[in-house]
Amino acid sequence: MIQKDALRQFNSILRARVLPTTDLLIHHEPYKNESLESYLFRSANNNALKSLAELERSLSLPNGKPFSYKRYEQLSTSIGGSVSRLATMIPTIYQNNILMLNRHSLLNQQLALTTSKLCPCCVKQYGYGKIYWSLAALAVCEEHGVYLIDSCICKPDALLDTARPSYSVCKCGLDLRFEIGRPASDNAVMLAEEIVRLFNRIPKPGNSMLTNVFGGASDLILTDVLTLVALLGVLDSETGSIGVRLARPLVRLAYVVPAFEKAANALESWPAGVFPLFRAALGLNQYTPKPSVLMRKLSSLSEAIDGKVTPSVYKVFLAAQAAFMQTPSAWSPVHLSQKV
Ligand SMILES: [Zn+2]
Ligand SMILES: [Zn+2]
Q1: Which ligand is nearest to the CA of 149?
Q2: Is 228 or 55 the better-scoring residue by pLDDT?
Q3: What is the pLDDT of residues 261-280, one digit of tens each?
Q4: Which domain holds residue 266?
Q5: Which of these three, 203, 237, 265, is where a domain ends?
Q6: What is the pTM of this model?
Q7: How far is the CA of 121 from the centre of ligand 1 (A)?
């Protein structure tokens, strides 16, 4: 018993040495669904720090990287927030290439931790940012139907960073809450709604865009859905480059937005919705191939994807390929021009 106490004491000394704590004057609990970035910004502002970057420095917080579970206690002591709440909102290293967020296990590349994405309308309405905006593939606010933003009009090519004065204010002084959100397509909003519902574990009665693809609500797993969205976003690239593009995902909204729209359109009328992406991926927009040629091209496409996506997504992908093979009218560029 004494040994155990001594060990605990030794561990807490060690932890205190490795992870500095700063007991800030004003402590807060996070809001419902609040992102870690938004929460840290609020804490920095309410404690009269110049920016989140200053708080990050004083607590030696990793910037743009997931945290270890040891950070729960450090942040709880320093800025408030119960350990159990922090555990759900902190992107936490679980094991090699796997992170936990809101008790979902996700692949490293499925979270955009180096960028800051926000919906100006939500921040204006609620005063804070949402945790699920850090999902790398997500480009749209499901509630306001607008694209998220990751930069300010003062410098559209520069990403927002933690040195800005507050969560919604750019370094140039512009309050991003008064930016006018750019409306997203109906399909993209629908896809965003489904992803957020899944993230928050809110079941939807009846069929949905995603249950139609995966075969049932009980089969829906967030990491599979994000993998499929990422795959559809890059499917019309050159076959040889798809694997690399999946492993190093898009994080800048300038690229995420068109990829998200592409995925939403394909998912809305699955599997026919993915046929134009197959045609583009296989270079069929100029001619109609013989079935044997098509078969060869499709098999090199599935080889390029094998092992780069989750087993459920691979299964769904092969089923869509089979549906494409069985629909000769979809192979031809004429089909495309008729559709247009
Ligand atoms: Zn919003
Ligand atoms: Zn600015």
Answers
A1: 1
A2: 228
A3: 999 999 999 999 999 999 98
A4: 204-339
A5: 203
A6: 0.89
A7: 5
Q: How many angstroms separate the alpha carbon of residue 100 from the centre of ligand 2?
A: 32
For residue 19, the model assigns a pLDDT of: 65
In single-letter form, the type of residue at position 207 comes to N
Give the Å distance between the CA of 43 and the centre of ligand 2: 22
Listed in sequence order, the DSSP H helices in 180-310 are: 186-199, 209-214, 222-234, 242-247, 253-268, 275-281, 291-305
DSSP category for residue 340: -
170 lies in the same domain as 111: yes
Query: For 44-54, what is each residue's pLDDT tens digit?
Result: 988 888 888 88
Residue 188 CA to ligand 1 center (angstroms) comes to 14
CA 191 to centroid of ligand 2, rounded, Å: 30
How high does pLDDT run on average in the chain? 88
Same domain, 59 and 126: yes
Q: Are residues 215 and 199 in the same domain?
A: no
As given in the structure block, the two tokens for residue 261 are: 């729209």
Instruction: Over range 287-308, report the average pLDDT.
Output: 89
CA nearest neighbour of 113 among 89, 95, 96, 80:
89
Tell me the residue type at 287. Answer: Y
- Ligand showing the shortest atom-to-Cα distance for residue 146: 1
For the CA of 140, the nearest ligand: 1
Task: Compute, in angstroms, the gap from residue 234 CA to the centroid of ligand 1.
Answer: 26
- Give 136 Cα–ligand 1 centroid separation in angstroms: 17
Residue 219 is given by DSSP the state G
**How close is the Cα of 155 to the center of ligand 2, in Å?**
6
Ligand closest to 122 (CA) is: 1
Nearest bound ligand to the CA of residue 129: 1
- Nearest bound ligand to CA 153? 2
Least confident of 179-193, 242-256, 301-315: 242-256
In 3D space, the residue among 311, 144, 313 whose CA is nearest the CA of residue 230 turns out to be 313
pLDDT mean over 93-120: 93
Note whether 296 and 218 are same-domain residues: yes
**158 and 240 both lie in a single domain:** no
For residue 124, the ligand closest to its alpha carbon is: 1
**Which tokens in the block code for residue 268?**
């809305």
